[in-house]
Amino acid sequence: MKENRSKNIRSEFQVTYEYDVFFTKELFSLENILLSEFFQSKKTDKMKKKVLVVIDQGLFNFHNKILESIPQYFQSNVESVQLIEDLIILPGGETSKNDSNGWELVVSAINQYGIDRHSYLMVIGGGAILDMVGYAAAVAHRGIRLIRIPTTVLSQNDSGVGVKNSINYFGKKNFLGTFAPPVAVFNDSSFLVSLEDRDWRSGMAEAVKVSLIKNKVFFEWMESHVSELTHRDLTTMEHLVYECARLHMEHIQNGDPFEFGSSRPLDFGHWFAHKLEYLANFSIRHGEAVAIGMALDSIYSYLSGFLQESELNRILNLLRDLGFQFNHPVLLKNGKENLELALKEFQEHLGGKLTLLMLEGIGFPKEVYTIHLSLLESAYDRLVGWK
Amino acid sequence: MKENRSKNIRSEFQVTYEYDVFFTKELFSLENILLSEFFQSKKTDKMKKKVLVVIDQGLFNFHNKILESIPQYFQSNVESVQLIEDLIILPGGETSKNDSNGWELVVSAINQYGIDRHSYLMVIGGGAILDMVGYAAAVAHRGIRLIRIPTTVLSQNDSGVGVKNSINYFGKKNFLGTFAPPVAVFNDSSFLVSLEDRDWRSGMAEAVKVSLIKNKVFFEWMESHVSELTHRDLTTMEHLVYECARLHMEHIQNGDPFEFGSSRPLDFGHWFAHKLEYLANFSIRHGEAVAIGMALDSIYSYLSGFLQESELNRILNLLRDLGFQFNHPVLLKNGKENLELALKEFQEHLGGKLTLLMLEGIGFPKEVYTIHLSLLESAYDRLVGWK
């Protein structure tokens, strides 16, 4: 007789996470006491915790003074923690995630300097190095305290304020990683001034994304501020970053923060963007790829009868007016024949059934579980031919 | 003027975890439908998830039939998931955690077989391989579903039912790892029958530990069942495992599951045990080291005036009657001069201030924040001289 002969004990518990994302200017200026107040607020006993700092090499073209201003800041303003004097400088960009060398170096430094679970790892740079260092922080001693200081539009309004970290492995994007919230994020807009135009622009793709799936008012605000945004008005960009970060964080908090389910609304436009980045060997920026991915999915939504043509045009126009292009060489070369593979890889990464977001309107997403390949190919042809 | 010129957005959310620990016999017997019912209960859509199985090589001395019974079981009883036919066999024991080779192999298999976030990694073996495979499951795709099937007393009543995983790195125990609850644990008592005497005994140390810090009734139950336990009565051992696992899980659930604070009550006796294992080059079992660590801390508690002599004697007698010895060669050789270093390393691993548990009575722990080295050395001398 078949039977279930067993007893069981159920474990059920909740873990509470909280962190602040601060918006400031000149974080390491001696006049700015935000960071010192933060460390003071975290102090629970008389022991001085350590702070190990990792800096994205890419910053040094414009911000090489940071090597002096950080030690000066800690010496003058911060009594409650001890800065590790050896600031670690590592190359950033997607290639920093492509093998485990950078990760290994950070983990070694954590060991070498005796950084414990209640000490801090502070990383300053773009989204890729934030991801890589975040992964090191998440697994060393089963998790040490991570402070992110994102320096690009993309990392300040999107990846840097969220709960994920990762490196690429086996040639697959984000194959290794965890969900591990930081203890704080400091968004310093003075880093944005020196960004290359491509990076300034690229980061806005995630703002368009979050407006498309969450908030039409924000979409319309971008439509009416295209000129300020493309002419690099910093105050306007600060608002874009704040609003995008706010919507992003609101989504994480009210949704499924650690993605136990299959749905991934924040990945709108991303299934194809991930593949494009690989096909272009990362010569395309993440935001540029996301803009193409969103344009493709918006056209698909229109061809499927979900989205009105007038709204499709507004979406494509905003992306174009912000400076995004839909005729990247890799699209013309071999993008189309990789559509099916890209869907398959995205499904595997999601786990479980394919769940994609399409649009019923600006600010109104729609989940779909099947994709008609012929329709997708038509959308693709329209995309590359779009003027 | 110094000022805090910033605004901020706070993110605050809770993540809910739940899992069952099942107690059964002959899990892969065709008559036992527990496992097939489990997979059926987890099914949420029509897709068949995959199950990748990793087995501890150490099992094969006595359980080599498992290579046939697992495929048979899945073929006959399990419709809702797809077994990956290639069962992965890896060496277990602490050495499997000492480098990243085993971990790398498991992560490669996850990639090779396309195991996604909603598929399963099932690991069968002792606590060390559970830790190592658990760490691979926790970081691949940012976390795939882990099923643990612990096969030793120690892993069934302690490590295997908890929320941690790890590997050793830089020669430091558990340097890399995460907090990541499994989706289920299946404790099959039939694996215990074939354990070596040392392993049967060693696992009981954690039961003594949890009774000392949580539950005097359980301590007294062990005192009155020493004979059955040492003569390997399986029903008595099943009760010990169940009760120890229950108290362990209750503690995790009601405490600080991911150890954000500094207190680590479940580590009673462990600060010195960890060091002993290294000093003995893992020729000592974890439980044997924990028994010595608990004896040392109990004597220290007595010498500090916290614990009555009569209760100290009951503790040391129970440990001795269960077969633990306090005269391990490594203790006589260089244990004493490593006491201070062991405290320092434990503090670093804890993070923050030193927080140790001592005893005020059986079932009544007391947190202490400083250790008097001379008193500790006296306790040590008593320990190694104890008859």
From TrEMBL, chains A, B:
Record-annotated 3-dehydroquinate synthase N-terminal domain positions: 88-201
- Single biological process term from Gene Ontology: amino acid biosynthetic process
Membrane-crossing residue ranges in chain numbering: 120-140
Q: Which UniProt keywords apply?
A: Amino-acid biosynthesis, Aromatic amino acid biosynthesis, Cobalt, Lyase, Membrane, Metal-binding, NAD, Transmembrane, Transmembrane helix
Q: Which cofactor does it need?
A: NAD(+); Co(2+)
Q: Does the keyword Amino-acid biosynthesis apply?
A: yes
Q: What is its EC number?
A: 4.2.3.4
**Which Pfam family is one of those matched by this entry?**
DHQS_C
Cross-referenced Gene3D superfamilies: 3.40.50.1970, Dehydroquinate synthase-like - alpha domain
Q: What region holds the 3-dehydroquinate synthase C-terminal domain? A: 203-329
Q: Which GO terms describe its molecular function?
A: 3-dehydroquinate synthase activity; metal ion binding
Report if keyword Chloroplast is assigned: no
Query: The organism sits in which domain of life?
Result: Bacteria
The record's annotation in PANTHER family points to: 3-DEHYDROQUINATE SYNTHASE, 3-DEHYDROQUINATE SYNTHASE, CHLOROPLASTIC
Q: What is this protein called?
A: 3-dehydroquinate synthase
Which species is this UniProt entry from? Leptospira biflexa serovar Patoc (strain Patoc 1 / ATCC 23582 / Paris)
Gene name, please? aroB1
